[in-house]
Amino acid sequence: xxxxxxxxxxxxxxxxxxxxxxxxxxxxxxxxxxxxxxxxxxxxxxxxxxxxxxxxxxxxxxxx
Length: 64
Fold this sequence. Notes:
With 64 residues, the chain is of the alpha+beta class. 28% of the residues lie in helices and 12% in strands. It contains two helices and two strands; from the N terminus they run αβαβ.
């Protein structure tokens, strides 16, 4: 069963220390649900999807 960690804000006493978050990330426990990844050359398309609210989640630009 996958374990999930949600970080929603900073300064809260119930947040995990950064070291624990790092360990979880390295272990592959943390995941990110990315809606779409665009190459950097398509930054205009990514921006348009965000601006028009057609993006259904996090959008990532990646260098080529």
